[in-house]
Amino acid sequence: MEYRYAAVAFAPAAIQAYSGTLEATVQGGSDPATKAFTCEVRGEGTLPSLSLQAPDVFDTSGRPVLRFGRVLVGRTKMMKINLKNNGTMDVTARLEAPPPECGFRMLEVAPQTFTTEPKRAQTFSVEFAPQCAGACEGVVNVKVFKNPFEDYRVACIGEGYQDDVTFEKLPGDSADELRLADCPVGVPVSHVLVLHNHARGKAFRFAWPDASTVGIRVSPSAGFLLPGACKDVTLTYTPTARAKLAPHELKLALVGITPAAGGGDATDLPDWDDRSTVLDYGASAAGAGGGGQPVARPEPQPKVADVPGSAKDMLLK
What would you report as the CA-atom Rg of the chain, rounded to the nearest whole angstrom? Predict the structure, then answer.
């Protein structure tokens, strides 16, 4: 018994389904059962293609968009681009990052060429790190090889902003949102956030509202924030009954301050908040039954002058 192999090539000229009949005839064959072989051959013309899974937001012109929103100068925010190969062949594409001066950068090496196997996906990370205040826009290009119809241009849009005072150390590096963990009734749960004064020549007095009606306590609830300084603030939630704390906004009041008349500038202010105490060694200590021992008393707020027009609020959600 002898074998011969034949190679069948398929070269589609269009994106469509093809079918035909392959027939092999034995020259001089007389047996109807073996003198010929026929079979149907099928194929489909296709192009390498990647499906954009993320982002799934588009602008008015139909471009896919990564919307980073407002990001504080000096901080970063990351979003993802996800591409999936839903076809039956390997797909090779080229990724090109926006210019670095736009404030956007790829966490992976770019530009780069990558190949995605059938039914697999590739994820790329785009980081927005504004260096100055203002609107920023860039484009990530994804070009699929051997497919002239597939050239994704993913728009990256964000805005850098700068504030004198910001919240820091919030979960997920959020700018203004704090989510507390679940806790048993009567058991407090706390989070320590930071107030950061980025201004080098300004000082502020801050004051938190009384939120005891919803079981929230903030310490310190009032104080000074000196130029360039940070202050830890502890927010504690103590539920008194089984309940779900509805979204609640705490409005932090800020006002610029300077020393009282003739007292210098903002850099000369003392650090103070309502946790500060002083030791009273006077006669009142003995008279109060202290046995001559000093008594710790709340330190009065130092005298300051408000800066006209500097009052503003910050919302913690």
Answer: 34
pTM for this one?
Answer: 0.67
Distance CA 82, CA 51 (A): 8
Contact indicator for 178, 245 with CB cutoff of 8 Å: no
Residues whose CB is less than 8 angstroms from the CB of residue 168 and which lie 6 or more positions away in sequence, other chains included: 193, 194, 195, 196, 230
Helices (H), the chain: 283-285
| Residues 127-158 pLDDT 10s | 999 988 899 999 999 999 999 989 999 999 99
CA distances from 61 to 58, 102, 150, 155 (A): 8, 21, 16, 11
- In angstroms, the first-to-last Cα distance of the chain is 83
Q: What is the pLDDT of residues 97-124, one digit of tens each?
A: 888 888 999 988 767 899 999 999 999 9
Residues paired with residue 67 on neighbouring β-strands, in sequence order: 157
* Contact criterion met (CB below 8 Å) for 186 and 239: yes
Report d(CA 282, CA 87) in Å as an integer.
86
